[in-house]
Amino acid sequence: MSLEVIYVTRHGTVEPFVGLWAQSARPDADAGTKPAILGEAGLSEWYGSASFEHPTSASSDRLAELFPAFDRSYVPAVVPSRMGESIAQLHDRVALTMDALIKQCDEAGVRAVLLCSHAATAIALGRVLTGNMPENIEAEDFRVFTCSLSAFRRRAAAPCDIAGEAAATSAPRTLGGPILLQQKWIGRTAEELEAGGYAK
C-alpha cells in the first residue's frame, strides 16, 4: 500500500521526505500519485496554558513558497488556542483532530496516511488512536523522540464516532482502527470539544 496523504504540523516540514519519495517513485509514475501534503494545525506543537499568545506558523501561502509540495488550499480541521492548553486539552484537541482527519480520509477512500507532529502531540496521538489513556497522564506509555516513527493499523471491528456510537456503515475501514475514544472522550460530542477552545 503506498502513501496517499501526508498531514503535517504547520510548524515543520517534510520537504526532505517528499524529495526522497519522489526519487524512489517509479519512473512511469505521474504527478497524481504523489501524496498530498496538508498542513493540519491540530497536529501542532503543544504549548502550555499562558496569559499571553504563543507563536503561530506562517500563512499557507508563505509555507507553499518555502515548501513547494505544501498544499495551500487545505483548510485545517482544528486550530488550537493561541493561549496554550493543558495536557487534558491537548488530548481533546488531538481526539477532535483525528476524528476529523479519519472522516476526511474515509470519505476520500484514503488508506495510507503519514501524520507528522511533535513529541507531546505524538504521545496524545498514540493514546487517542489506541484508546489507551493511562490514569496518570505523565505515564511513559508511548515513547517518542526527537525523530521517531510509530505505525498504527485500523482494527477490523465496527467503527465508532467521537460520541462512541457505532457507525451505521459496513464500508471497509483502514486508517487507525475504529477510533477508540474511550475513557474521557466517550459521550463527548465534537461541539463539546470545540467549546473547549478548538475551532476551524
Automatic annotation (TrEMBL):
It comes from the Eukaryota. Pfam families: His_Phos_1 (PF00300). Coiled coil: none annotated. Gene3D superfamilies: Phosphoglycerate mutase-like. This is Putative pgam-domain-containing protein.
